[in-house]
Amino acid sequence: MYIIHERLQTIRYERGLSQAYLAKKLGISATTVNAWETATSKPHVEFVIKLAKFFNVTTDYLLGMDDAPYLLDISELTATQREELLASFSVIKAKK
Fold first, then answer.
1. Residue 21 and residue 83: Cα distance in Å, rounded?
2. CATH architecture of 4-70
3. Which of 51, 53, 57, 65 pairs with 15 at a CA distance of 20 to 30 A?
C-alpha cells in the first residue's frame, strides 16, 4: 500500500508549510513535491530519508509501515504539548 503521499501532505499541512517552502528546504522544485503529494510520482529513498529528518518522523511512518510518527509515541499529547516537547528537545540538542 502506497501511503507516503497522504502522510507527506498531512504532515506538511499540520506544520503550516507550503509546497514551495518544503521544496526549497529539500533543494527540489515545488512541482516535485506536488507530484509526490498527488501520487503521480514517488520520492527516491534518499528523499524519504530527508523528509523523515526534516519533519522529525520515522521513515516507517512516512511509508505507512507504522502509524506512530515518532519513535516515542506522543500521539495522545495535544498539538501544544507536542510543540513544547519538540522545543525542549531542540534546547537539549543545542546544548551538546
1. 20
2. Orthogonal Bundle (1.10)
3. 65
Q: Which residue has the cell 503521499?
A: 5
What does the buried/exposed string (b/e) look like for 81-96 if buried means 16 or more CB atoms within 10 Å of the residue's CB? ebeeeeeeeeeeeeee
Residue ranges per structural domain of the chain: 4-70
3-class SS of residue 79: helix
Task: Give the pLDDT confidence of 5-45 residue by residue, as tens digits.
Answer: 999 999 999 999 999 999 999 999 999 999 999 999 999 99
| pTM of the complete model | 0.70
C-alpha 9/C-alpha 35 separation (Å) is 11
Contact at 8 Å (CB) between 55 and 82? no
